[in-house]
Amino acid sequence: MADARAVDRTRSLFRPDTPSTLRADGVLDVRRPENGPTESRAAQRLMRFGPLATIYERAWRPLFRLWMGVSGPTVDVERTFAVRDLGLVDDGTRVVLDVACGPGNFTRFLAESLADAGRRDALVVGLDASEPMLARAARDTARTVRTDSTGSTDLADHVAYVLGDARELPFEDGSVDAVCCYAALYLVPEPMRVFAELVRVLRPGGRLAVMTTVRRGPAVVADAMATAVRPSGLTVFGAGDFTDALHRAGFEAVEQRIHGAAQFVTGRKR
Predict the structure, then answer these.
(1) Is the pTM of this model over 0.90?
(2) Pick from 81, 126, 203, 227: CA 20 to 30 A from residue 98's CA?
(3) Closest residue by Cα to residue 80 from 109, 43, 102, 51
(4) Where does the chain show beta strands of DSSP type E?
(5) R_g over Cα of the chain
(6) pLDDT digits (tens, 9 = 90+) for 249-266
């Protein structure tokens, strides 16, 4: 069960008109029934398949490394990238949003990193559209206790989970210090709309970090690959799609790292 303080802090970040129901599993449900069902192709339906939440980190998530090639970074290295790219070592980082968080493995790692940096007042919010994924995330987080020089701390004190649509984030403009979306934008409907929402909720001076697909090789081959996977619900992005969007939004320190057919993009909002 999520800590009441983490839930209350998360709700304080929401837009005033956001409906929110605290479910029995401790997840905040902000879905709007009037919006109707979301687009659901094979990739999106798979993310809502209950058993996948159990094997996600061990089996499904590593499959993305096939896009990066044998020399691509491991999941542990990806997490190191995120800590750096999100500026979690900076004193100003207090609220972090992890969009499309799945079963919460990455969300918990970010919370642990902030705790290691001495951010006792940090809050990490994971958002996803999958009920099974978030139910697993809430259970695992409730069981996680960290012990350091100051004693034992329940990770749930600093983590909250939100069930909602990333195309319409419930948060106020400029309400979070850092926002990330790793290995998910290529799966979601309307990914560029989701990306615009990541930019909107980030405060001036805050940092954004994304890891997703990228087209590589000759244009004919890259276009053919992107077309072949599109019916399944997967998107393969152009090399400039996200860097160009960040520059247009006035971001600075924009950086892109490409490993195989995967890209890491980060930047700081002016």
Answers:
(1) no
(2) 227
(3) 109
(4) 21-22, 28-29, 95-99, 123-128, 145-148, 151-154, 159-163, 176-182, 202-213, 252-259, 262-268
(5) 18
(6) 999 999 999 988 889 999
